[in-house]
Every structure is written in structure tokens, then in C-alpha cells.
Amino acid sequence: MTIFALSSGPGISGIAVVRISGDMTKEIIKKFTGKKIPIPRVATLRKIKKINTSELIDEGLIIWFPGPESYTGEDMAEIHVHGSKAVVDALHASLSNFENCRLADPGEFTKLAFQNGKINLLKAESIADLISSETEIQRQQAIKIMNGKSADEFNLLREKLLKILSHVEAKIDFPDEDLPNNILDEIKKGSNEVVTKIKKILNDQKVGERIREGFKIAILGPTNAGKSSLINHLSNRDVAIVSEIAGTTRDVIETHLNIDGYPVIISDTAGIRDSKDEIEKKGIKLSLNRAEEADLKLVVVDAKSLDFTDVLKDLLHENAILVLNKSDLLEKDIDPEIKKKNHVLISIKENKNIDQLISKIKNDLKNKFITSDDILITRERHRQHLQQCLDHLNNFNQKKEIEDYDKAAEDLRLATRHLGMIVGKVDVEEILGSIFNDFCIGK
Fold first, then answer.
1. Which CATH number belongs to the domain containing residue 22 in this structure?
2. Could you tell me if residue 110 is inside a domain?
3. Is the previous residue joined to 106 through a cis bond, with omega within 30 degrees of 0?
4. If pLDDT is split at 50, 70 and 90, which confidence band does 279 have?
5. Contact at 8 Å (CB) between 297 and 250?
6. What is the pTM (predicted TM-score) of this model?
7. Which residues constitute the domain of residue 429?
8. Closest by alpha carbon to 377, among 192, 195, 205, 137?
């Protein structure tokens, strides 16, 4: 089967790139141009015509990538034409007329590259992350994974486990033979080294996921404290409705921001109060759930009325900044006990001390986003497989008796399998769909 898709962005543009991959690619290019196939990897100007009527579609560049030296590992070509919808539609319509040639599924080109051994699973994921990156730190992380360091680390751990497994299986195959003491010592030492390394990788404060998905900030507090005004101010646009009427915000409203290169997702939530309104009660429940998920909580209260409920006090216990709004209406100094908390006194109406609040948020971001070359996990999938690998290794290390060697070997096989599933060393068809569906069509 040969596939095709628009690989450049949809809409009007100066140039549109249509990508083709599969056995029919060479024949398609010949029929489109009426000429022999271009020199590999050299941009060649050609007139591109409809295959049935020879009507000119456009004049553009064709780049021919014969397999296996191509992105997908198959015969592949790119057609660069003018980026109008009419030109792209005409090109797609002509491609559809070829037998066994169809529009590609999302991520199918990269899926072929993985299946044909051109890239590993981590690199495939990092390509998707690079395409969707919005901030500099996201781009840097995706590039690091693309360069292969993560894959190298996981492959090294997997090779160590395979070596340990070979020694254990030797004991199973030759039970009457005494293994040298140094081999038994190596089994124990190697297993402990892998366990220590995996624990270190898992103890990363989920920085990789935070960078990829965004740092989560939840704006919480009672009704009419200025939460919606704050998210609008930070976003420089009207994200949420602002009203004098209490309880205007019923659902969680999100906006994505770039703060000093750090990806941030800010959520405005329903005001927390006792309510008999069923819809508002559901909104308050969502607010509290979002507070649990947040990396940082901005608890916004009216500076004049600092009567904290138990719920608000609980919100301030960890990863929280107390935001005292409406300071322009304050007639006296705030309570000394309040000053002991991590707080900032602001007035959104008069744009007072907002810069101090942003500075506090930035400092929290920098502390949470402390990165190093040891950050290897960027998705929950990686974390789950590493944890399961660790669980099987712990089971392996608990087996002491000779009669447990068969079970010990199975623990090692399962641990090795989970490491392999991170980079795609084993049959991972069941997870490919969920990974490549996140891609755009044409990649």
C-alpha cells in the first residue's frame, strides 16, 4: 500500500509539501511528470499534471528518496507546490486515482519509520513532542530525546538484565554444575545496580512530564475574590467572564501560557463556598479536584475579609501562594499571622504588585523545572514500564533458594520486557495506535 498526505500545515501558504511513501511512489512520480525519476535527494523542477487528462496542476519541486535510505525506509517522495487549497486538492484527487494508494493516517509515516527500523519508539515520540512544542524548554527536551541518550540508557539497562538472565538460565539448564562464585556475585551486583539506577530515574519529580504537558497552576478561592480577573490579567485577554454576581464561574476554564520559556496551564475554577445549587456544587468539586492535580495553587481572597474556611486553610498547606486581592480597598494593615504565609498583596483593578506575583510564580517554576541530563522520562507510559520493571526485579532479588531459579528467570524476563517496551524492542503493537494517533496527518 502506498500512502500520501499534506505534510505542511493546512491553509493558504507560499509552499505546500505533499509526501508519498510506498512501492508505487516511483510510478506515481513518472506519471505525474511524464519524465524519468529525478536524481535521488536533489530538488528537481517539474510540471505536475493530472494523470487522466494531462491537465497542468502546478509547477513545483520534486525530491526523490529511494528506500531504504528514506525517512520511512520505503521509496518516498516529496512534491513541493504552491500552497493553495485548490492545488493541494487537485494533487490529492489525482493521487487517489492510483490503485492501492490512499490518504495516510495520523502519524503513519513515522509509524512506518519505526516498523522499518529507522527509528526507535522513544525517537518517534520525541518527533511528535518536537512538532507540538510551544516553548524553548519543550523544544530542548524533545531534541535531547531525539539524540538518543534516553534510548541508550534504557538499552544499556536491558543488556545488563539480559546478561544476568543468561547466567540464571545457565543454572537452570545445568543444575548439577556449580557456577563460579564470581558469577553468582555478578548476578547479585548487576541486579542491584539496575535497581539503583531505575530508582534514581523514577525519582525525577516528574520534571519531564511537566515540561512536555505544562506546569499546572490552579486559581482557587471564594466567590468574588477576583480569580477570573486574575486569569484574564495574566493572559492579557478575556479568558473568563468577570461579573459582580457571585458564582459566575461554574466550570474549570483553562489557558496555556509561556512564562519565561516555561509551558504553563492556568485554570480558573469555581468559587469555593457552601451552595445549594447542584451545578455550582459540581463546579466546586471540580475546583477541589483541580487543586489536588495542580503543581502550584494561587489561593485568591479578598484582602478585607480574611475569614478562612477549613477548605481554604487546607489549600494553603503545600505548593500554594496566598494572593490577597483588592488591596486598594484595604483600610488597615493585614494580620501579622497572614504575613507569615507565602503571600503577595495585590490589586488587579489598579494593576498593583502583579509583577511581584509573577516573580513568585517564576521562582516556583524555576525550582520545579530544575533539569539535568538525567531526566529520561517524558511520558506516563515510560514511568509505568519502569515501575513494573522495578517490581519484577524486587521479586527476583527476594528469591534465594535453588528451586526458585525458574521463577527468578521469569521475573527477569518480565523486567527485561518492560524495559524493551519503552524503546520498542519487543512486540508493542497494542501501544502503537495510542502513540501515533497523537501525530498530525503527514508526519
1. 3.30.1360.120
2. no
3. no
4. low
5. no
6. 0.77
7. 124-203+376-436
8. 205
